[in-house]
Design brief:
Largest sheet: 6 strands, mixed
CATH class of the largest domain: Alpha Beta
Mean pLDDT: 93
Helix content: 40-55%
Number of strands: 10
Structural class: alpha/beta
Shape: globular
Number of domains: 2
Radius of gyration: 20 Å
CATH topology of the largest domain: 2-enoyl-CoA Hydratase, Chain A, domain 1
Distance between the termini: 37 Å
Order of helices and strands: EEHEEHEEHEEHHEHEHHHH
Strand order of the largest sheet: 1-2-3-5-7-10
CATH architecture of the largest domain: Alpha-Beta Complex
Length: 267
């Protein structure tokens, strides 16, 4: 199986993963899903990687599912067979979203150009999203009789509220990057020519921090939507306890007191 649909490069502590079907706006095929899983497996086994940076090749980030990869077309006037979309989602998209959420390292997405359908929602599953000023997010599902998948119905109302989530998902209106930032859907916007430089700065920043603290930080924030205040306070207490027992916290305090740069080991 060719893995050219996914490119991987390690830049110090940052794993840069690029969706690489630019002629198809990096829309997903089964082969591409499988190649991405293999790449993420490699990253998971590499303890020197401290941050994942996901982006797309060419003029767009990702147009979602390649409909031609699983299409059934009418033949001789007979309607096409029904397609089990749930099977594709259950086998590929849901595990990917869960994997991004559960990632032991922070995830950054650099959105260049269009992010549509599942492509938009894969981006939103990352911890921090930075977009080029010519990028746009489109929940195209309603135009073909579907609903947002890949965590779209989960992330949209949490990021922008129910009213805006309904508008985005029902109307399928493209949302430009600057408005996406204003609405709180993404972290930042920059000039298209500066996107990767700015995204790498973010990723390098995250890669330089103690990873256990970052992992517990991310997990606590996500858990807060389902916890009571008492449950969240207890989660904070337990998480702080874990952080306090790490070598990295001791190193951070020592470095602060000694006025030097800390050397974190991830332990």
């Amino acid at each position: 199986m060719s893995q050219s649909t996914i490119l991987y490069e390690k830049k110090q502590g940052v794993a840069v993963v690029t969706l690489n079907r630019p002629d198809k706006l990096n829309s997903f095929t089964e082969e591409m899903h499988q190649a991405l899983v293999l790449t993420l497996d490699i990253i998971d086994r590499d303890d020197s990687v401290r941050c994942l940076l996901l982006t797309g090749a060419g003029r767009g980030f990702c147009a979602g599912q390649d409909l031609g990869d699983r299409a059934t077309r009418p033949k001789n006037g007979v309607s096409a067979e029904k397609t089990d979309l749930g099977a594709t989602i259950g086998k590929y998209y849901n595990p990917l979203i869960k994997r991004l959420h559960a990632s032991k390292i922070p995830t950054v997405c650099a959105v260049n150009g269009v992010a549509a359908g599942a492509g938009a929602n894969i981006a939103l599953a990352c911890d921090i999203v930075i977009a080029a000023d010519n990028a746009k997010f489109v929940e195209v599902f309603s135009n073909i009789g579907l609903l947002p998948d890949s965590g779209g119905t989960y992330h949209l109302p949490r990021h922008v509220g129910l009213a805006r989530a309904l508008g985005l998902s029902l109307l399928a209106t493209p949302l430009k990057a600057d408005k996406a930032k204003d609405w709180g859907l993404i972290w930042d916007v920059c000039a298209a020519d500066d996107l990767m430089d700015e995204a790498l700065k973010l990723a390098d920043n995250l890669a330089s921090k103690p990873p256990i603290g970052l992992a517990l930080n991310r997990a606590a924030l996500r858990a807060s939507f389902n916890n009571t205040i008492d449950e969240q306070l207890e989660l904070e207490r337990l998480s702080m306890q874990k952080c306090g027992f790490t070598d990295d916290y001791a190193e951070a305090v020592s470095a602060f007191m000694e006025k030097r740069k800390p050397k974190f080991t991830g332990k």
